[in-house]
Design a protein that fits this description.
By secondary structure, this protein is mainly α. 68% of the residues lie in helices and 5% in strands.
């Protein structure tokens, strides 16, 4: 899979972001996207083939793997990357809409199409709320699907067609757990950055409103 579209999206949104937003983009691009492409994808590449149970009963190994890994860690991570990045499209679409509207009317309708004020500010805040929400949802999903943020070395399975309780072994559990902790840590960092940017923009907006009223009152 090519991740070029995600890189282009993040690059396009960068010019409309605050300083905190640019840090978020750097974290997503360097510590999540590049780590995923360069290392994590290879670790989970043959996870099904390397999942072994101490029995040769036909179908037993497959149902046990499906039970303990209903969704692959790496595919869920990829889906998370896509979902937390796409709300940024709202900002790009909003700016494109304003620029297109100015072209149709052949006149200046906005101070600056990319300035975070009015409608664009609301769109930017909505995108931050959506990104934070997706991060939290996926962290809860990881926790619920895998019974915590851990990768056990040995799992016991007694699902039919297994004739009895069998031992199944997960390949490279320590390495996978390290990357899982890294995933959780970067997700938490992104949540903190999103909430910080959201608070900063709201605080800045109300300060601006207050100063305008103050100046008008004293004039």
């Amino acid at each position: 899979m090519s991740w070029g579209f995600l890189r282009d999206l993040l690059s396009g949104v960068n010019k409309y972001s605050t300083g905190i937003g640019r840090i978020w983009i750097a974290v997503v691009f360097i510590f999540r996207l590049l780590v995923y492409v360069a290392a994590a994808e290879d670790i989970w590449k043959h996870e099904h083939d390397e999942f072994e149970c101490n029995i040769k009963q036909p179908g037993c190994e497959n149902v046990c793997f499906d039970h303990f890994f209903p969704v692959s860690h790496i595919r869920l991570w990829a889906l998370q990357l896509i979902m937390v990045s796409t709300p940024s499209l709202l900002v790009v679409f909003h700016v494109a809409y304003q620029e297109n509207r100015e072209k149709r009317h052949n006149q200046k309708l906005y101070k600056s199409a990319g300035e975070r004020d009015g409608g664009l500010l609301c769109t930017y805040l909505v995108s931050l709320i959506l990104k934070t929400g997706f991060e939290i949802v996926f962290l809860v999903l990881f926790y619920k699907l895998y019974n915590g943020f851990k990768v056990p070395r040995l799992v016991k399975c007694d699902i039919r067609p297994c004739p009895n309780t069998v031992d199944c072994y997960i390949s490279k559990p320590t390495e996978k757990m390290i990357f899982l902790y890294f995933l959780v840590a970067t997700s938490c960092l992104c949540i903190v950055l999103n909430l910080s940017e959201l608070s900063y923009l709201i605080f800045k907006y109300f300060i601006k409103r207050y100063l305008k009223r103050y100046i008008k009152k004293h004039q």
